[in-house]
Amino acid sequence: MQVAVGAYHACCVGAADVAVQSFRERRSQLLHLVRVMAEQPSEEGERPDRTSKAKPDEAREREAAGRATDRQSPATAIDRVDATEVAGISVIGIGASAGGIEALSLFLDAMPADSGCAFVVVLHLDPNRESELARILSARTTMPVVQVKDGMRLAPDHVYVIAPDSDLKVRAGGLHMSKPVVPRGHGHPVDVLFSSLAMDQRERAIAIVLSGTGSNGTEGLKEIRAEGGMSLVQSPETAKFDGMPRSAISAGMADHVLAPE
Q1: Mean pLDDT per 10-residue run, the chain (261 residues)?
Q2: Between the CA atoms of 231, 237, 238 and 244, what dihedral angle is there, to the nearest 10 degrees?
Q3: 245 close to 216: Cβ distance less than 8 angstroms
Q4: DSSP structure string for 145-162
Q5: Which of 52, 98, 227, 261 has its Cβ near the most Cβ atoms within 10 Å?
Q6: What is this structure's pTM?
């Protein structure tokens, strides 16, 4: 992991030395770093040094519970094959709420269609209405944009958007849906996604927080940072609603603060 760690810190230093830039301006540098992270084996003892960001006790408990479940329900042969095939894909989780569609559109405009990444998008959606999010975003990229169905396998250069009235997790190369366990307006679906990314991708986890109200996403970023993953946060000045970006930045969870375009 020494190469990835060196590239990571070099990229962070560059971000600190300049005023707020756009993703498009930093795209080549960041995508190079993503590729470096994707090429590293996920091994115990070889993680970026984030000792100042200790893993929360709650995160440890969830991870232990997840491992216990895996021991009780071992993967089938087909699951193991699929997981091996997708092991090299960089999975990028994106969370937003109010104002998020506009920010997502700008981000996809700037993102190359052949980055090799899989993008998993969680927004706050009306649980009682069909979502048009996949259709709207498909007009901003040549990548396939699909609404997630339970058990869908990840593929590079695809965008996956959450379905209404669901929580979404990444596990072993697949996307897994469940009904929210808390009433509408009280759930944190972005935290659910980011937490699953931290557990599944470990130091390769990458998360992006865009426009939105409240603090959704901040707790999930803590788990990603505790594993040595990377976070990008929309600059509050460019966000239509700056609650989510400011929450992440105030908590010290932003590796890079950028405009989405």
Answers
A1: 35 42 80 73 45 46 45 36 60 95 94 94 87 94 96 96 94 93 72 96 94 95 95 95 97 93 81
A2: 50
A3: no
A4: EEE--TTPBP-TTEEEEP
A5: 227
A6: 0.77
